Amino acid sequence: MSDTGEQWQVARRRKGAARKSKPLQVSSNSRCCQEPLDIGKTVKRIRDTVSELRCEEFWPQWKEQLLVALGSVELSKPQEDRDPEGPTEDGQLFQHLDCVCYGLGSFSSCVSARFQLAMLLLLLDAGQIPLKDCFIYDPAFSSGERDVLMQLGLTVLTENEEGKRLVTKPTLFYLMHCGKALYNNLLWKNWSTQCLPRMIIIGNSFNGILDRTIEREFKRDYIYITQAVSVCEDRLLPCPSRLIDVFSDTAVITFPTSSLNRLPQSTWAEPPEPQYQHCPDLEIIQRETGEEP
């Protein structure tokens, strides 16, 4: 690894970490606040990190699990649309996907966030998702970081959607160590047997979230995760011990139609929007009052 052990000690993820950890220590006098971000240097550093991860032993398993998810019935091309003479390499039989990334964090100052961004780029390549079709947002991004993301070819969103994005086509959501409310909002917005099967989530294991949350509060405040956890496929991804603060408790989550159909029809009737009146620590930065979703 190119970063020192000391760097790893301070590279703690913020909100909604998979386990209790120290908050990221970034002082108001940090380098990123004293001078403009060096765009070219930061882009190179990220691409170097991509190369590092590509050589890691666990990367082929992440790629394999992504391709398994992409190969699900809901996402694969209909047989009649396939070219019998065409190539059959990984990804060639899949529909074109969008990707949405929320909550990445300040990757110019946080080592964990930089590695998570590098993994996102690897996954986009493996899933043959065009960079421009990856939509990314975090209110923590500086203007320099937004420039870096655009230089990489990603599409930077300008509005805080709070996770409330309706899918109209197969979509990969990359939500590393995000808060429970963001997952719950995403599920609410797509709470139907038509939309959920179009989604792949790479983020916190729903089973892990359930294990770490008081059951009464979980059922009261995060009803959509509560219902989804019993019918989704939640496949935990490998994480080496030295990257525990980066990729711990990460899973590939899909929503097979056959499983969703096990829920009673009343489950899908007019799902109420989450309110979170009883959540003092919401783990999500909400829109400003009056801001459009």
Structure description:
The protein has helices at 5-10, 31-34, 39-54, 59-70, 111-126, 143-152, 180-189, 206-212, 215-221, 223-228, 244-247, 257-260; strands spanning 98-102, 134-137, 155-156, 171-175, 199-204, 233-236, 250-254. The protein is α/β, with parallel strands linked by helices and 293 residues long. The chain has a domain at 48-76 and 91-259: Rossmann fold (3-Layer(aba) Sandwich). The chain has a 7-stranded mixed β-sheet. It is globular, with a radius of gyration of 19 Å. Residues 1-34, 78-82 and 86-93 have low confidence and may be disordered.
Overall pLDDT level: 82
The radius of gyration over CA amounts to: 19 Å
Tell me the strand order in the biggest sheet: 3-2-1-4-5-7-6
Number of strands: 7
N-to-C SSE series? HHHHEHEHEEHEHHHEHEH
The description of the largest β-sheet is: 7 strands, mixed
The CATH topology assignment of the domain at 48-76 and 91-259 is Rossmann fold
Q: If classified by CATH, what would the architecture of the domain at 48-76 and 91-259 be?
A: 3-Layer(aba) Sandwich
InterPro entries: SRR1-like, SRR1L
GO cellular component, one term: cytoplasm
Protein name: SRR1-like domain-containing protein
Region (Disordered): 1-29
